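Chapter review: from sequence to fold.
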Amino acid sequence: MTSNHRPTRPAVRPGAVAAVVLGLLAALLTAVPAAAIPDPGDSPRAPRDVTEQDRAQTREAIRKGDIPGQDEIVHSDNITHLANLPKGALKGTNSDLAFQGKYAFAGNYDGFTVYDLSRPAEPRIVSQVLCPGSQNDVSVSGNLLFLSTDSSRSDDSCASTTAPATEKDSWEGMKVFDISDIRHPRYVAAVETSCGSHTHTLVPDRKNVYIYVSSYAPDASFPDCRPPHDGISIVKVPRSQPGKAAVIDFPVLFPDGGFPGDPDKPRAVETTGCHDITSYPRLKLAAGACMGDGILLDIRNPAKPRVIDRVEDTENFAFWHSATFSQDGAKVVFTDELGGGGAPTCNAETGDQKGADGIYDIKGRGDKRKLVFRSYFKIPRHQAETENCVAHNGSLIPAKGRDIMVQAWYQGGVSVWDFTDSDKPREIAYFERGPLSTTSLVTGGSWSAYYYNGHIYSNDMAKGFDVLRLDDRRTDSAAKVRMRELNVQTQPDYR
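The token string follows.
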């Protein structure tokens, strides 16, 4: 276990560092995170009371077998649950995942954990770094690890405390770690970005790593996050000198301000920045999920991304959350995070077109390419009113000749679905747990579910790290595809 408080701090003996980490952890876990971003936005929430009618319906649904019992695990016949590793020293909310070689890097609101996947059925913790700051979305490239901080902190150190976003000296943005020694990651750089870093996307080349930093929800009272905020920060990190990482531009992606909101549809969020971007470096394309808008970007010059198409869905989408390309780059799946990840939206009342995935074909060439809507996909299993459930982070399963995705749905669990036919998506496998509570709405479930080198890995907000095996003729060919590195928001060419 290791942590360096500031990027410029000299190395400390590992034993001394571990003692500092444990002491800080005991102190920091008692603090309440002061997020600078209002809902929606993947923020963990305190348990919320539900009505007695909702409690009764939950109990009845469990009795009838319509949903699994509290904490009960259920899954389709083609899924095997190989392992669950509960949280270690970092007790905060688990978030995103990245992979390199035999390791998985798991974000947590308190820092990040490195897992050894040499034996997928027996994952083990290699190191944990205490560095609080939601969401701590994580990615890796070569010897560098990147961590997003999107809660206002007292400074850029890993010993920072919560601080008001209204104070000019508060900090949020990108952190960079050297992971050449996987057991002792070393903090080497910090870059403050406008409105922090909710998520980030890598566009790497040989000498540099370009980072597209997504953030949103400005406020006139925030000195470092004032409106308008109609673009993204671009950070350039020289691989040989990561300490020189710096913001090089803030391209405006929405010169007209983007979707302005609609008073008749209060769930539809106005655009004040982007939530997440997925790049596809081989195709020189990126797809952005930007609150009220979905966009297609030309990234031939990674330092100068350019919007070539933009779509809105004011009928069914509330919050454009993330994007995934098909293997050939001819389709994009956008997700709608209705309710910000903290609401029970997988129910009959919400229906199957809200809080769902939207499948878009890309038509045309060059600057004339257009995003054309085809259909929605949502998991076909209703969840309890005490379960937060909505479309969230997923990745492709590189099956030959098919477009198949594995995806997290919070307490809706993990779903594997086929969108080879853009008009007729369908689920082919699933894994889920019963509700964390039958009496109140407790936030939890799978935050990220990704396929990597033959297995599915899920970072559950509350339950820890899960490993699944999928045995299905439609996906068996994916086992032949081996990756040396995977950041899902930097989509590889699996072919």
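Two observations follow directly from the output. The helical segments are 14-28, 52-64. The radius of gyration is 21 Å.
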